[in-house]
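Sequence only, no structure available. Ideas?
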Amino acid sequence: SEEQRRSFGRLHAARVASQNKPPSQKMRSHHLMACMLGIPFADARAADCAGGGAQCAVLDIGAAYGYYSILSKLFSPDEVRVHAFNPHPSFTRHLRDNRMLNRLDGAVRLHELAVSDTSSQGALSYSVASGITRTNQGGEHGKSTAKTVKTTTLDEWAPAHAPELIAADQRPAFLLVKIDIEGAGAMALRGAKSLSPFVTHVMMGIHNDEEWEAAKSAFQPPEFEVLDERRRGDATSPNGVFIARRAQGAWTGAGDKGH
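Reply:
I predicted one. Tokens follow.
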């Protein structure tokens, strides 16, 4: 029901309010995305993930400490497979710890990779506040480190690690792709042309005009129902969110070969 869909969001909003401090624009975007997770989780429960043999998954791209990955595993059906992507060993180490603390060892699959439009290696910099970025900047703890990391495209990753998501004879009943990679989301979408037709839900953190235009172009009506699209701030902080799900009737889910 709609009430069930929103219940998770209210729980998260109450937790945020209890912190008793005004969030930054970037944190407001994170809070909105987290509150909206109740909708895809309800859709996942309604999908025929187990009984019909359909595949269901969450791809958490830019997983950081695993917040969305862990919530996805805790609040979605057991059959939903969760894949968490982050290329920096510091994030990956903490993500492993958080996975263990939540008793989800083996339930959330970790991929120490940066998702982009090429499969190679890239020099990225990391700060505690901003995650993986392309510029060297101090984090909230004054830490900033450069690291050469492995990059992949989702179109190359999926056949090797999750071929069931792109099987020709059966579409996944539920495939949520969450992207929040500090301005590189457009590159991730360019590297996901083969995977995109199988996506049922998308949640994208917006950091620049390129990400905004890429999301609006890739996931628009009538094929997708846009649940939220907003930007706040100015040119120096153009953060926002884009959230959409595949419209009912665009394709029927499990067993549908059309597009």
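The longest strand covers residues 144-152.
Hope that gets you unstuck.
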